[in-house]
Amino acid sequence: MHGYSKVHDHCPVCGEELFHHRADDFPQYLTIFAVGHVLVAALLVVDDLWPDLPLGLHYALWPSLVVVLSLWLLPICKGGLIAYQWALRMHGFETAHVAPLPEAAHGPVPSPSGGAGVAVSEARRSAA
Fold first, then answer.
1. Which of 52, 94, 121, 124 is the most exposed place for a label (fewest CB within 10 A)?
2. CA 52 → CA 42, 46, 48, 63, distances in Å?
3. Which sequence spans correspond to the domains of the chain?
4. Residue closest to 26 by CA, chosen among 96, 88, 84
5. How far apart are the C-alpha atoms of 112 and 128, rounded to whole Å?
6. Is the pTM of this model over 0.85?
7. φ, ψ dihedrals at 95, nearest 5°
């Protein structure tokens, strides 16, 4: 991703097209869900351990944690959603292909039966 949450149009490594992803609002919902659950649990624990904590500290601590956790989790959730869509070939990724890996870099892949190895590209072709 470039910018804060803008996704590159193409993968800089393999050239896969990413411009057609459909993240919409789900990363924001997922971020709110995660931050809310973490902070409500933390608030209950802090209130149980230190019931006389000054209100000013609560006013400074919890909103700051909401902002920091939200800004940290949002790009992670968005990237995860786009990766999930790619893995399941959803929303424009239906025509995405898995590029064959060079055999020299990875060597032969052993067969499940323990017999002779099968080249990486042959294993990918048989899996497709």
1. 52
2. 16, 10, 9, 19
3. 1-97, 100-128
4. 84
5. 17
6. no
7. -95, 5
Nearest CA to 93 among 11, 18, 13, 29? Answer: 18
Q: Are 75 and 5 in contact (CB under 8 A)?
A: yes
Q: Tell me the three-class secondary structure of 16-75, residue by residue.
A: CECCCCCCCCHHHHHHHHHHHHHHHHHHHHHHHHCCCCCHHHHHHHHHHHHHHHHHHHHH
pLDDT tens-digit profile of 28-59?
999 999 999 999 999 999 999 999 999 999 99
Cα–Cα distance for residue pair 74/64, rounded to 1 Å = 16
- Using only C-alpha atoms, what is the Rg of the chain? 23
The DSSP letter of residue 102 is P
Q: Which two tokens stand for residue 108?
A: 């032969």
- Count Cα atoms within 13 angstroms, Cβ side, for 71: 8
> Residue 10 in contact with residue 81, Cβ under 8 Å?
no
